[in-house]
Amino acid sequence: MLRRADPSxxxxxxDWRRYWTSRxxxxxxxxxxxxxxxxxxxxxxxxxxxxxxxxATEGPPYLLFGLVAGALSDRVDRQxxxxxxxxxxxxxxxxxxxxxxxxxxxxxxxxxxGFVSMSVFVFFDSANFGALPTLVGKDRIGEANSAVWGTTQxxxxxxxxxxGALVAFVAASSLYWVEAFTFLASAMLLRGIxx
Length: 195
Fold this sequence. Notes:
195 residues
């Protein structure tokens, strides 16, 4: 026997479901590139050093832009900021497969795209921290955080292995299309949130 969803419950809230779906889709795409980018740089250069630099571009944007991003997100419409960051990241990431298709892709391009994309994500992330409590309310924040983080932890376990197997058959640069699409999908889902 099926039970009806609690009308006051978190999962009965359409805006919450859009938000959760956008986060899961975007996080899945980010995890794909986190694995694919170092593989791509190594395939272009054969350099372990540059492969390490590619992975290391994740941290500095938080150190460089974290405070500015937090201050900005407190002063602007968080939803609009998150949508704009997603759209910007889709455009930035699409440059990698385009450059590869034109035969002009370099390791420097991949590394710079990684740094710039992560820098944009810092602004998204700062807006996200303030948006979630506003969206679900203080009484449901624990359940909402558990749903988001629980799902992303599952993705952290599943996706790297899948990407590792996938790059045996597909060029790592083409996986950037997947990431760009996930950012576009996230932007559209976030735009659909009414409050």
